[in-house]
């Protein structure tokens, strides 16, 4: 009920039922406004699908910046949602990057499943927070079932556990955090949770391949170990960690007085999709009594495929693992998981807050997920995966994975058959790294040429590809995550690359 003292502040036309119609609740006018708003919004999205045939409009940064320079975020009286949606078209939708487009083959962004969008409607409307039972109820069991399902696919033992996270970066952070605190607890007479780090922590070393994800270094810094604690180990010609080099690196660091605490294997490197020799790495970690984390942010989706899941063998021997559902499970951002082989590891970060998850509640057996997460308030992202698995079935998802891997292999072959291209990898998952080099024995600046191609393709918007550097040289990259994309799409994209490459020579 509107309080008397505020009544004079209302506009003449704004009756209390109008003022409060914006709040999600069970009042008839609010339900009507909710339904109308969602319908209008879905129509705006459909309109976006119908008016955009390319992955990008090609608008320049300056053009888009200019639109915002004349705008204020604040609007005292507000506008109808329809007007705001119209404005949003101009400001954002017309130029949004379309990951669903078959010619989007740039970064690790997948097209998303429609059932996940239905789930998003419920997630945002009901607005469950996953931190405690008294804010989530059945939502907690949905997340727990999916954790159980993923743990089973990984092949972890009975006592394993996990939690949904915001992404691979956060999951990798949890892996390194538990690795650090496990090592401290086992080797020093301090409790890292209470006392912090021992002086020797400056000597802690984490080993990962030279092509592993940057989040490992960033997380090491955030964990107080410094980026220099991360030792990059050489890879073989398939961009997989060289395990002999790993052992040599461990021995060398020990001889320098440093202290190995963890090895990180990558199952699906960001650039190449290469999978480290997880078995051999697990054995090395075991030999040196250090933590073994597997970053399967990209490769985790292989657990869905009967044909390719073998490639992840060895992940079951890890102490912890990262899997990003928003990369290879066709889930919207954000949806990721962190998994550990022994649920007691989580005690390193457990905290009881009297107002939230008291010790008494734990003793009663109330499942409060906050104890497993580094977040407190946490979105019910698990519902998207739940609705996906139960509407589509895992077999279809496995087929999607098989299709993108086959497309990557055929694309790599197609590029190898074109004389003007150099291809660096045979895709284990779905990334192809290559460069355009039509005149190999000339003084052409091949890096400048390929950087030009990537930028002009973005500026044109007809097809989006990525670039990266390998041993200091610029390469182009396809990340194939769309099962609808066909080899003919890839041929067209390669034709665009050749056209822009040709233009480079005309201009230079
Ligand atoms: C191998 C790997 N690990 C971790 C990450 C980080 O994942 P997120 O972007 O979900 O934080 C990425 C992102 O591309 C990745 O490729």
Automatic annotation (TrEMBL):
BP terms from Gene Ontology: carboxylic acid metabolic process
Keywords carried by this UniProt record: Aminotransferase, Decarboxylase, Lyase, Pyridoxal phosphate, Transferase
Pfam families found in the cross-reference section: Pyridoxal_deC (PF00282)
N6-(pyridoxal phosphate)lysine PTM sites in chain numbering: 327
Protein name, entry field: Aspartate aminotransferase family protein
Family: Belongs to the group II decarboxylase family.
GO cellular component, one term: cytoplasm
């Amino acid at each position: 009920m509107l309080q008397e003292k505020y009544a004079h502040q209302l506009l003449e036309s704004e009756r209390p039922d109008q003022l409060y119609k914006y709040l999600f609740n069970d009042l008839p006018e609010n339900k009507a406004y909710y339904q109308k708003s969602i319908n209008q919004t879905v129509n705006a999205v459909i309109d976006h699908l119908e008016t955009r045939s390319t992955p990008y409009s090609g608008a320049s940064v300056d053009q888009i910046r200019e639109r915002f320079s004349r705008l204020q975020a604040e609007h005292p009286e507000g506008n109808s949602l329809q007007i705001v949606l119209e404005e949003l078209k101009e400001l954002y939708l017309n130029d949004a990057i379309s990951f669903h487009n078959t010619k989007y083959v740039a970064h690790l962004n997948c097209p998303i499943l429609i059932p996940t969008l239905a789930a998003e409607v419920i997630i945002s409307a009901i607005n469950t927070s996953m931190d405690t039972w008294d804010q989530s109820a059945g939502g907690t069991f949905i997340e727990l079932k999916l954790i159980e399902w993923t743990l089973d696919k990984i092949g972890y033992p009975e006592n394993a556990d996990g939690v949904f996270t915001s992404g691979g970066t956060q999951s990798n952070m949890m892996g390194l955090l538990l690795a650090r605190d496990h090592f401290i607890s086992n080797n020093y007479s301090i409790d890292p949770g209470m006392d912090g780090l021992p002086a020797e922590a400056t000597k802690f070393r984490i080993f990962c391949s030279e092509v592993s994800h940057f989040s490992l270094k960033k997380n090491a810094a955030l964990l107080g170990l410094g980026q220099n604690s991360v030792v990059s180990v050489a890879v073989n010609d398939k961009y997989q960690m060289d395990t002999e080099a790993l052992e040599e690196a461990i021995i060398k660091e020990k001889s320098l007085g440093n202290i190995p605490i963890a090895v990180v294997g990558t199952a699906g490197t960001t650039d190449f999709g290469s999978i480290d020799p997880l078995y051999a790495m697990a054995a090395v970690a075991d030999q040196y009594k250090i933590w073994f984390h597997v970053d399967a942010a990209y490769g985790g989706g292989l657990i869905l495929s009967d044909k390719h899941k073998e490639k992840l063998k060895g992940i079951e021997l890890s102490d912890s693992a990262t899997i990003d559902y928003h990369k290879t499970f066709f889930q919207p951002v954000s949806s990721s998981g962190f998994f550990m082989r022994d649920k007691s590891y989580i005690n390193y970060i457990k905290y009881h807050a009297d107002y939230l998850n008291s010790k008494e509640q734990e003793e009663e057996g109330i499942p409060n997920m906050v104890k497993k997460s580094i977040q407190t308030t946490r979105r019910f992202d698990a519902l998207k995966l739940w609705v996906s698995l139960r509407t589509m079935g895992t077999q279809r998802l496995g087929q999607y994975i098989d299709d993108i891997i086959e497309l990557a292999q055929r694309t790599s072959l197609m590029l190898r058959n074109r004389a003007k291209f150099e291809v660096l990898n045979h895709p284990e998952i779905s990334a192809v790294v290559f460069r355009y080099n039509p005149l190999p024995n000339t003084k052409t600046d091949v890096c400048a040429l390929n950087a030009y191609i990537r930028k002009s393709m973005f500026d044109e918007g007809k097809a989006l590809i990525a670039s990266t550097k390998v041993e200091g040289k610029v390469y182009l990259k396809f990340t194939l995550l769309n099962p609808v994309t066909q080899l003919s799409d890839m041929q067209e994209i390669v034709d665009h690359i050749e056209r822009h490459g040709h233009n480079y020579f005309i201009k230079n």
